[in-house]
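Researcher: Here's the sequence for the chain we discussed earlier.
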Amino acid sequence: MPSHPRHPVPEPPTQTAYLPGNLIDLIVIPDHLLSAALTGSLTLGDIANLAIALDDVTTCLRWLLNNPTNHHARTLRAEFAIFEFKPSTQSDSPRENT
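Model: Thanks. This is the structure I predict for it:
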């Protein structure tokens, strides 16, 4: 997509490359935090890992919301869309038996 000198196409933040892993971290880390808290082995590093994952995911989501027409944003949304919510295409629709 060509960009205008005054309005360059915004590039996605580097965190988007790690979005799948960070989303998984948001599932795994809280469980680890609870287990560590129960055993008394919770560290600041454990809490920092959750904060980093939350910050990275929030940065990506904020960028996606602020740049809805950007090619990179559309591609990323398509990759993470649940099948039921993906835009249907001709090849996705079931063929009727006639």
